[in-house]
Design a protein that fits this description.
It is a single chain. The protein is an alpha/beta fold. It has a seven-stranded mixed β-sheet, sandwiched between helices. Helix 5 packs across helix 6. It is globular.
Length: 213
């Protein structure tokens, strides 16, 4: 059942309720995420939190259905999380309650904008972790302009914004040697964490890529 639909400069977003009750988000007809299998979003958060001593300020690229941010908020050490989400309608659906909201937590701030611009505007060495879950990864893009997010150029901008001991984690729906190479070139190494998932009765594997400053 379709709950909401919106069209932006990047295409069409559809929020729907599947038979069985799962909430699902599709972009340009492509399945992006649901609220049934959230283990990889949770790992994206937990991997970052485990790598930093004091997660006072964290930046998340991509709001989605909120599960990465929700996992961050479970850590009482977290001081502030800034979410960059380019689709205003997705933020609106969460504010209206169509998507269960995490935006009423006082630690959460949301900027509607491209994560590249949001990160570029940060003060250097001002955040403890940057988590990127903006698209499906460099090899299966929903929005082609997001390809720049996975390059060494933007990843170097991310590193400049991290405090000493900070961490970058990046979500990908598939194994990507190019992303691993880009993270390694900027951070001097890359840890790749596979996440087996059950996606609508299909066995799949997602990946989290991590580099430390």
């Amino acid at each position: 059942m379709e709950l909401a639909r919106a069209v932006s400069a990047r295409g069409e977003l559809v929020l729907r309720r599947r038979d069985g009750g799962a909430l699902e988000l599709r972009v340009n007809g492509v399945f992006v995420m649901d609220d049934q299998e959230t283990s990889s979003e949770e790992l994206l958060a937990s991997a970052a939190l485990a790598a930093v001593r004091h997660p006072d300020r964290v930046v998340v690229g991509g709001l989605g259905l909120g599960y990465t941010v929700r996992a961050l908020l479970d850590d009482e050490r977290l001081g502030q999380v800034l979410v960059a989400e380019i689709e205003p309608d997705l933020v609106g659906w969460m504010r209206s309650g169509l998507v269960p909201s995490i935006l009423d937590d006082p630690r959460v701030g949301v900027v509607v904008g491209d994560v590249r611009s949001v990160v570029a505007d940060l003060v250097d060495a001002s955040v403890d972790a940057i988590l990127l879950d903006v698209d499906n990864g460099p090899d299966f893009l929903v929005y082609n302009e997001n390809s720049a997010i996975y390059t060494s150029g933007f990843l170097a901008v991310c590193r400049a914004k991290l405090r000493a001991g900070g961490v970058l984690t990046v979500w990908s729906s598939s194994l990507s040697p190019s992303l691993e190479a880009a993270v390694s070139s900027v951070f001097g190494g890359c840890e790749v964490k596979p996440v087996p998932v059950a996606l609508q009765n299909r066995a799949e594997t997602y990946y989290v890529y991590q580099g430390g400053a």
